[in-house]
Specification:
Blueprint: E1 2-7, E2 10-15, H1 18-30, H2 50-70, H3 84-94
Antiparallel strand pairs: 1-2
């Protein structure tokens, strides 16, 4: 499970973040609560398997984590700017997945904004 969050005012990527795990466990054990997961089907690039896409997504996430150490992105306090929804759509664009602007629930003012794609490339 990969996600991005406002951690100390910065847009941070995390793998298996405890809040996501807690909500997911509750959802699958008890059904939807106050936080209902959202799902969107991503159109994969031609010839790319689901397994390969997931591996590429994890690699790009790790690259983002490394690159954002020295060049962190500030998380917008009011939602206007690059936020977690922006990040989600940016990584799919970087990987060649669909580029549809999804209308996610919650504060998604940044859904038309993108993380600069160099964040997802392997650091030099």
């Amino acid at each position: 499970m990969v996600g991005t969050y406002d951690i100390n005012g910065k847009l941070r990527a995390e793998i298996n973040y405890i809040d996501d795990l807690t909500v997911s466990r509750a959802y699958f054990a008890d059904g939807p609560g106050i936080w209902e997961p959202q799902g969107h089907i991503v159109a994969l690039p031609s010839g790319v398997t689901v397994e390969s896409y997931i591996e590429q997504c994890l690699e790009a996430t790790l690259n983002y984590m490394r690159n954002s150490v020295n060049s962190p992105i500030n998380y917008p306090a009011n939602g206007w700017g690059i936020n977690s929804n922006s990040w989600n759509q940016s990584i799919h664009e970087f990987l060649g997945g669909d580029t549809v602007v999804h209308d996610y629930n919650g504060i998604d003012y940044g859904n038309g904004k993108r993380v600069p794609l160099w964040y997802f490339r392997k650091p030099r």
